[in-house]
Write a structure and sequence with these properties.
This protein has 481 residues and is α/β, with parallel strands linked by helices. It contains 17 helices and 21 strands. Strand 8 and strand 9 form a beta hairpin. Helix 1 runs parallel beside helix 12 and helix 7 crosses helix 9. It is elongated. The model has no long low-confidence stretch (mean pLDDT 93).
Length: 481
């Protein structure tokens, strides 16, 4: 079950991909992490899918990551008497807290926090940015606007307020219930929507502790203003390009994508590029050439993972979408220019012994043509440092924690394997070599690079899996053990 690529695939489960047969096929065709989108579906459906994924782990002996994506606050207009109106450029239109069904002159906007944050000339975007209105007058319970770009507006369409920090928690009451349910199930990653500032991440961390990693979904312009701080406190990042493109000029999104990837790579935090990657495959069996180039561009930039949304959740060609994405990644990673790009964009090392050992492992592996860099890790940090180097050599992460193994399934170049503690130092080389051969990373005569952060102060009872500084690098020749 070895993957012959470094970049990972995240796929969303939905109505067309909730059977054991389809989920298994998605996994076999290349999915490394499954996304459970809590904006849709019931707890019962998500639990059923969770159990299917865990049964596949047992069947194939391979850790599979599960990402729970929380809905976050959804800002929406209320209902209309006729269900729908038509706004024209130049029209005057009012938003207020009155729950009475709206008409062509006004509608309920049940979010007082929006009114409290407005200023004159603030833009309001409706229905994913299709309509644009400008605030002319406002108060604590109303906003009078002029329509700049008109169009049809129907019940419960979304509202965006670009450039304004809204006094709203990233966690709604629904999110808190969903989060508790996800943690009880045992999800590996939590994706937090509507992140505006690092405090949003810290609020969730206070709830979940170390039970799961936190992915900050960057979909608000305000989050970009705090990018470095958010990346520093999150465990990973998702570039939610669709929502970014609503509140920002579309031509700025590619630049932001590259900037976010750069910051994440410097910090050694996994980064996912998401939204509309193979969008035409929702209805068609093949992607456009532009979509293929889009996925390839993200891979060339060194992202940890690319994600499928509607393509795998509700599209007509879910399995084909995964298969084609897998082929695109493999094609890019076979290009010699790919690793040259990664080398040129490699970030500076930190002045720590752990970083020195990890950088040395990559250099030694390249020098002696090692077939794998093997990290023994308790928390996953050693494997993350190894991935930060973006080596040409595959990274085999051995850990006693199934939770850590599943979390590492999202990380670039890392092939996680759960294993137990060693009984003695003497058996390390033989057991590591056996696992490398068993998982198709080595044959007799091959060289392996091993990094360990263990505690060797007591040779009779060493703690090889020991959280702390990575302090040992060794070369193993497989036919010598």
């Amino acid at each position: 079950m070895r993957r012959y690529r470094a970049t990972k695939i995240v796929a969303t489960l939905g109505p067309v991909s909730s059977s054991p047969e389809v989920i298994e096929q998605l996994f076999l065709k290349g999915v490394d992490v499954f996304r459970l989108n809590f904006s849709h579906g019931t707890h019962e459906t998500h639990l059923k899918n969770y159990k299917i994924i865990r049964s596949l782990e047992t069947k194939y002996g391979r850790p599979i990551g599960i990402l729970q994506d929380l809905q976050g606050p959804k800002l929406r207009v209320g209902a209309f008497k006729e269900g729908k109106i038509e706004l024209k450029a130049g029209d005057h239109f009012r938003f207020d807290l009155d729950p009475t069904p709206g008409d062509s002159k006004r509608v309920n906007l049940p979010h007082p926090e929006i009114f409290s944050a407005l200023k004159k000339e603030t833009d309001l975007l409706l229905d994913d940015g299709k309509l644009r209105l400008k605030v002319q007058n406002y108060g604590p319970d109303f906003a009078e606007t002029t329509v700049i770009i008109g169009g049809p507006l129907s019940n419960s369409k979304g509202v965006n307020v670009p450039g304004v920090a809204l006094p709203i928690s990233a966690l709604t009451e629904k999110d808190r219930k969903d989060l508790a349910f996800g943690l009880e199930m045992g999800v590996d990653w939590i994706a937090l929507s509507f992140v505006q500032r690092p405090e949003d991440i810290m609020e969730v961390k206070a709830i979940i502790g170390n039970e799961a990693g936190i992915i900050a979904k960057l979909e608000k312009p305000m989050a970009i203003e705090h990018l470095e701080e958010i990346v520093s406190v999150a465990d990973g990042v998702m570039v939610a390009r669709g929502d970014l493109g609503v509140e920002m000029l579309p031509e700025t999104v590619p630049n932001l994508q590259k900037r976010i990837i750069r910051v994440c790579r410097m910090s050694g935090k996994p980064v996912i590029v998401a939204t509309q990657m193979l969008d035409s495959m929702v209805n068609l069996p093949t992607p456009t050439r532009a979509e293929v180039s889009d996925v390839a561009a993200a891979v060339y930039d060194g992202v940890d993972a690319v994600m499928l949304s509607a393509e795998s959740a509700s599209g007509s060609y879910a399995e084909e979408s995964v298969s084609i994405m897998n082929r695109i990644i493999e094609s890019v990673e076979k290009d010699s220019y790919y690793y040259q790009q990664l080398k040129n964009s490699r970030t500076p090392w930190k002045s720590t012994s752990s970083d020195a050992i990890t950088a040395g492992a990559r250099q030694v592996a390249e020098t002696i043509s090692a077939t794998a860099i093997i990290t023994l890790t308790t928390t996953g940090s050693t494997a993350l440092r190894a991935a930060r180097e973006r080596p040409q050599t595959p990274i085999l992460a051995l850990t006693p924690s199934p939770q850590v193994a599943r979390r590492l399934s999202l990380v670039w170049g890392v092939h996680p394997i759960e294993m137990q503690e060693f009984d003695s130092i003497v058996e390390i080389d033989s057991r590591v070599s056996h696992l490398a051969m068993q998982n198709e990373f080595a044959r007799k005569g091959d060289n392996l690079i091993l990094t360990i952060g263990g505690d060797f102060t007591r040779l009779d009872t060493p703690r090889v899996f020991h959280s702390g500084t990575t302090r040992l690098l060794s070369i193993i020749t497989v036919d010598e053990v």
